[in-house]
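User: Fold this; tokens only.

Assistant: Input:
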Amino acid sequence: MAKDDPVRFGAEFGPKRTGTSTGVSLSTFKTLVWVSNLGGLLLVVIGLELMIVQSEFFMALGCFASSLTRSQIVAAMVSFTLGTGIFMVGLLGEISPPTDTPLYAALKYISVLEHMKDFSSGIIDSRHIVFYLSLTAVFLFLTCETIGSRRWK
């Protein structure tokens, strides 16, 4: 390196580019790596979003089960049974042979695995978020109504 050459950041990692040189520079490679890492980070954020929305739904389901009884053990069993039941109903749509019936379409839509597939492959679909948020709202409403009915007894 001559004394009059400017000091380059990252000069130790690759050859010096001149006006006549062609090819991919190290800065282009760094940009590609950064963008690919950003894409991976975006997939992680999408997956976390689904986990948060699903956990809200299952917590609302647990709150509803807890409002049905005074015993914590019974509430835990009811919550586990309802959560497993929703998972199994969706699983019926996964393992049953595909048909064009509305029942098959409903089972396929309820399937927790189907929602996970789309989010894990990076597909951002608002239907999944609306599905879980609406079920969360329904179960929180039922919880409030159950607790409110005790007050009037």
